[in-house]
Specification:
This protein is mainly beta and about 300 residues long. The protein has two domains: about 5-20 and about 140-305, Coagulation Factor XIII, Chain A, domain 1, CATH 2.70.50; about 30-75 and about 85-135, no CATH class. It has helices at about 45-65, 155-160, 275-290, and strands spanning about 5, 10, 15-20, 30-40, 75-80, 85-90, 100-120, 120-135, 145-150, 160-165, 170-175, 180-185, 190-195, 210, 215-220, 235-240, 245-255, 265-270, 270-275, 295-305. Strands 3, 10, 12, 13, 14, 17, 18, 19 and 20 form a nine-stranded mixed β-sheet that branches. A hairpin with a 2-residue loop joins strand 12 (about 180-185) and strand 13 (about 190-195).
């Protein structure tokens, strides 16, 4: 649950794993992919479901648009068919979004299911995802912006994706070109907007301008205020909690564009603005379809009790 404190502080459930997607093409095309993964005792169900959907998206994009060449890796696998002939294939399950020549724009249909392999002596549980969506070919180099989560406001010491109860969350951001930023976090059936800060207004209420080659430490009052017309009191400081659970996972979306973009319609609860996951994905897809410079990086962070 998210709460706003009068300091102001926001209580968050956040969470570990990282993927990056980029938006650089013109027309969208229909893509289809699938992925399957064996369930291990160490897996967290929520994290596993997110991972299998990502791998299905990567599979769809790789099949449609291809992959970037990686040297010194085991992407190329050699297999023998029934006739003894050798064949080189690509293991899409080892790819990341940054290694496929396409970006995911919109999900049309998604089916995640559990598959039990109960052959004698080999009882195994698998999770499988079949997905259909809209993708777009990447035709030019992405903007290599950096986004990292920190557990203190000293970037050289505190970069992490693993947090404990009552840790504070900070985010380091830097871009080689000027642009505009928004940050959202999905928690259950709500997607909260973390940045712009809740007290920002005017043009900052849509997307916040950032300068090229300047390091930003967000959600910290130590580094002062970077943005004209706002004060230290406007900075939202973030505190993490599991809300009584042993461990939780959530996803944080960092959105960057070279163009100013408008915010979605937002509701408000206890001073915090939010929208539904479906409305967020529709808004994001609509913006991607008209703004080729809009990039999305998703940070999966875990918090344990």
């Amino acid at each position: 649950m998210l709460k706003k404190k009068c300091t102001p502080k926001i209580l968050l459930l956040l969470a570990a794993y990282l993927v990056a997607t980029t938006v650089f093409a013109q027309k969208t095309e229909k893509v289809k992919g699938s992925a399957k993964m064996q369930v291990e005792d160490s897996h967290c169900i929520g994290e596993l479901k997110a991972m299998i959907v990502q791998q299905a998206q990567i599979d769809a994009l790789a099949k449609k648009f291809g992959t970037f060449v990686r040297q010194g890796t085991d992407l190329s696998l050699t297999n023998k068919n029934a006739n003894g002939e050798t064949k080189s294939t690509t293991d899409f399950s080892s790819l990341s979004f940054s290694e496929v020549k396409g970006e995911w724009v919109k999900t049309i249909d998604k089916n995640v299911k559990w598959v039990l392999d109960d052959r004698p002596g080999e009882k195994k549980l698998w999770i499988q995802c079949d997905i259909i969506g809209k993708g777009r070919e990447i035709k030019s180099a992405k903007v290599a912006f950096e986004a990292k989560t920190l557990k203190c406001d000293e970037p050289e010491k505190c970069e992490t994706t693993n947090f404990e109860e009552n840790d504070q969350l900070y985010l380091q951001f830097k871009t080689p070109v000027k642009g505009f930023v928004n940050i959202f976090m999905q928690e259950g059936d709500k997607v909260y907007r973390l940045f712009p800060y809740t007290s920002m207004w005017g043009d900052y209420d849509n997307s916040v301008p950032v300068e090229a080659d300047k390091e930003y430490i967000l959600f910290s009052t130590k580094y002062g205020n970077y943005f004209k017309g706002t004060t230290l009191r406007d900075i939202d400081e973030l505190v993490l909690t599991t809300m009584g659970r042993d461990r939780i996972f959530n996803r944080v979306y960092i959105l960057f564009s070279e163009k100013h973009f408008k915010k979605p319609i937002l509701e408000q609860e206890n001073g915090i603005k939010y929208l539904s996951p479906a409305d967020f994905q529709k808004w994001l897809s609509d913006n991607k379809s008209v703004d080729e410079t809009l990039q999305e990086e998703v940070l999966y962070i875990n918090v344990k009790k």
